[in-house]
Design brief:
The chain has 14 helices and no strands. The chain is mainly α. The protein has one domain. The two termini are about 20 Å apart.
């Protein structure tokens, strides 16, 4: 636990340092002045579309949960997803969303293995959809922008992290050989009991995975709708700063690329890395540097701030645990 906390502190510190470096490169007083002059109507609309995006993700989770557990209450599943999304905003590589099955167990009495199947399905589809969009986006920008090789390399690294995560989740959900490998580990006396429980859990997850494949098209559609809603939110943020370009399709590509950067596990939820991605791409598209920094800060604040809708679920769980003690 101490090692985990130390790593989180280091990752948070790295993210803060990157943000401070961006502010140092910019004129901080100009950035502040820009932020104070934002159009509040556009900011409210951006917030609304971020919430809509989170709702699409929550609905994408509900689809596999419902197919595995017919009695699953929609409201509680959505609330559990919002809580998981909030946790993903404050964890490296957005890994906090993997806690969602435990939240669903407490909120809606959904078995953990069924909740995990649903979360893995979301993760797999999310990864592959965003990698495909990111690759298209990179080719699009390279067609008319002079991108430095270091920038291209950094963007490719982000895509590879996201792709690797998707492949890993796919293996866990579908690949039977991993089960055979763990069965071999089950023979080691020191970890025999732990491996036995893991084998049982993984076996149930993979059986659920077979039944969930037919839900992938529906999940993919909702993930795409979430990306479009996020894109619209980014466009409204740009408008709030008095900058009417890039176009909506360019923001779609920016959103896809920056989303992949969030999964690089060097900082908390890509803190600093995401902002650097926004600044690099937006300045290449002629947005003034200070405006781009202001945009990046607003995007982070609104994206994380609107996920506060998941806080009630976490408070309910905390109060429930306190009563049990």
């Amino acid at each position: 636990m101490t090692v985990f906390r130390s790593r989180v502190i280091v990752q948070l510190a790295v993210g803060v340092v990157i943000l401070l470096y961006l502010l140092q490169l910019a004129d901080a007083s100009k950035v502040l002045s820009i932020l104070l002059k934002v159009n509040l109507v556009d900011i409210l609309l951006a917030s609304l579309f971020f919430i809509i995006a989170s709702t699409f993700i929550a609905l994408a989770l509900y689809i596999p949960v419902k197919s595995l557990e017919n009695s699953a209450p929609m409201g509680k599943v959505l609330l559990g997803s919002f809580a998981g999304q909030l946790l993903s905003d404050v964890t490296p590589a957005r890994s906090g969303y993997l806690v969602t099955p435990l939240i669903l167990k407490e909120l809606a009495n959904i078995p953990v293995d069924k909740g995990m199947v649903a979360v893995l399905a979301i993760g797999i589809v999310n990864s592959f959809v965003k990698v495909i969009l990111s690759a298209i986006a990179l080719m699009y920008f390279m067609s008319f922008l002079s991108l430095d090789l270091k920038i291209v390399s950094a963007l490719v690294v982000g895509m590879l992290f996201l792709l690797g995560g998707g492949v890993a989740l796919l293996i866990i959900l579908m690949e039977k050989r991993i089960l055979k490998f763990i069965v071999v580990l089950e023979k080691i006396p020191v970890i025999e009991v732990l491996m036995h429980k893991l084998v049982e859990m993984l076996d149930r997850i993979q059986k659920g995975g077979v039944n969930i494949k037919k839900r992938f098209p529906q999940i993919s559609l909702l993930i795409l709708l979430s990306i479009i809603a996020n894109t619209t939110a980014l466009k409204f943020i740009s408008n709030s700063l008095g900058f009417r370009s890039p176009s909506l399709i360019e923001f779609l590509f920016i959103s896809a690329i920056v989303s992949s950067l969030r999964y690089i596990p060097f900082t908390i939820a890509g803190l600093g890395v995401q902002e650097t991605g926004y600044v690099l791409l937006l300045t290449l598209l002629d947005m003034p540097f200070e405006t781009a920094v202001a945009f990046a800060l607003l995007a982070r604040a609104l994206f994380t701030g609107t996920d506060i809708i998941g806080l009630p679920a976490l408070i309910i769980l905390a109060l429930k645990n306190m009563r049990l003690r």
